[in-house]
Design brief:
With 130 residues, the protein is mainly alpha-helical. The longest helix is centred in the C-terminal third of the chain and has 23 residues. The chain starts with a helix and ends with a helix.
Length: 130
Amino acid sequence: MGQKRLGTRDESLIRAMAPMGGGIASSGGACGALTGAIALLGSVMGRGSPEKRDDPKMWKACYELYKRFESEVVGSAGSINCRDIAGVDWRDRKQTKAFYKGDGRDKCADNTGKAARILGEVIEKYLDHQ
């Protein structure tokens, strides 16, 4: 969504985010929608080499995205971790199967959509139109 909003397509970034599903390598860690959104902002606003500087707005943009993700997606789960948001231990086959057979996939897609909306709004606020 973020790349679409920016009018770019970086397949290496898409590939790099592939193992974020299930919260960093299906560990249940930080939600892939959040890490993906932050990575996209960093890919556009971060420095391209060690001697360059980050766009100073990057930190504000990433922090706003993070805080909004906490309030609009995490809610009562109380954690940015996938296992808490989705309510599943990805290492437990029974829980994983139940997630996919039930409405887990739909809830995850809804949360990913919320994260994409937040990202789009942050992009509009912090990035100059190129």
